[in-house]
């Protein structure tokens, strides 16, 4: 079993104002030292879907290429205008490059959509052991 307290969290897209008819600004995550990632994209209220929604990788965090099998449009399943849903990618990192991110472009709607994306890195070479090494601002254990 992989315990949840051995993972590291990284926000790739911070909660922000609605995005409409534009590419989303996305941070890359350095996955060095981790063998597995779950990337979760939470889509809030919206009136439009995506025109691009895929996973990318990079050796240097600046030149990006698409991860095979990581493009929602390739499977003709781009997220539409369904609000309050979560889409994800489960990624075996052993064969991946050092950095990951999503590429997302929102279509042209009346007001656009809300989006937040987080990467959860697991199966670490050295397990994160406190809130700081897990990239958390705070942590309650109950």
Low-confidence stretches: none
Main sheet characteristics: 5 strands, antiparallel
Roughly what fraction of the amino acids lie in strands? over 45%
- Helix-strand pattern: EEEEEEEEE
Strand segment tally = 9
Dominant shape? globular
Report the end-to-end length measured between terminal Cα atoms: 20 Å
Structural class, from helix and strand content?
mainly beta
Helical content (DSSP H or I, runs of 4+) = under 10%
Rg to the nearest angstrom?
16 Å
Instruction: Work out the helix count.
Output: 0
- The overall pLDDT, averaged over residues, is 91
Topology:
Blueprint: E1 8-13, E2 22-23, E3 29-30, E4 34-46, E5 50-58, E6 65-71, E7 85-92, E8 99-106, E9 113-124
Antiparallel strand pairs: 1-9, 2-8, 3-8, 4-7, 4-9, 5-6, 5-8
Provide an overview of this structure.
The chain has 142 residues and is an all-beta fold. The protein is built from no helices and nine strands. Strands 2, 3, 5, 6 and 8 form a five-stranded antiparallel beta sheet that branches. A four-stranded antiparallel beta sheet has the order 1-9-4-7, with no helix packed on it. The protein is globular. The chain starts with 7 loop residues before the first strand and ends in an 18-residue tail after the last strand.
